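pasting for ref
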Amino acid sequence: MLNIKPVSDLRNYNKVLEQVTTDEPVFLTKNGHGKYVVVTIEEYDRLKKSLEIVEKLKKAEESGTISLSEAKQRFGV
């Protein structure tokens, strides 16, 4: 289940940070709308690396080096 808190809960940020785990980010709202996500450094690094891989695959596909479907088959992406 999503862990959603108002950004005002950051007044007691230790309580909010205790709820952040690798598998469970905390979503913060401002004026009732989603605004921020708090994730662990490990999760941030994983997401960033995943995005870099996707960007490299796109560039490779555009240059004709490898198609995205071929990469998916080859690497199980």
